[in-house]
Please model this.
Amino acid sequence: MKIFTTASKEEAAILSAPCAKVEFPLSQERKDLIEAIKKKLFELGGVGLAAPQVGVNVKIIAIYIPKDAASIRDHARAVPMTVFLNPSCETIGQETFEDWEGCYSVPDTMGKVSRTFRIRLRAQDELGNKVDKEVEGFFARVLQHEIDHVHGKLITTRFHKHSLFGPMAEMMEKRIAELSPEKRAAIEKLKTKQKKD
Ligand code: NI
Model:
């Protein structure tokens, strides 16, 4: 399954279009799409993927934060592969935090994005059960990023003129420079592993 990126005009149009609600019971087509998204996110190694990124404008997102991805972030914990349908979030409190974000659909770009620290997530699971919970830290950041996708919003719209953002290689240097020694070692290990994969 191919990842749509802004490098193509046609794909960029899909990435920036709003998404339709998922209806229950799920059709076989939707079930297959959910499985394909999970498989793709697993292959990519996490941390989030939304349906428009595989070319379908429906409100489906998947989150998967493996332990090693969590280890290079602040306020992070591992999250098993989880799918949220029709997700929306609401800000809790005033606290915001900045951290690096990249996106599989925005090639060769990385930057710092300010997000709400704590959110209330409302969604449905794959069986149609209601999800209503408070989430904070890096998990909340990934959810906000993916929920942006189902609204046709990319990280490029979250960078502002005072944000630190730019080409991946250049930003990676800055990112590594600001890490603690432990996190720096973890990120180097992750990079070596990704090269081997
Ligand atoms: Ni993204």
Q: What stands out?
A: The chain has a mean pLDDT of 95. Residues 103-105, 145, 149 surround nickel (II) ion (CB under 6 Å).
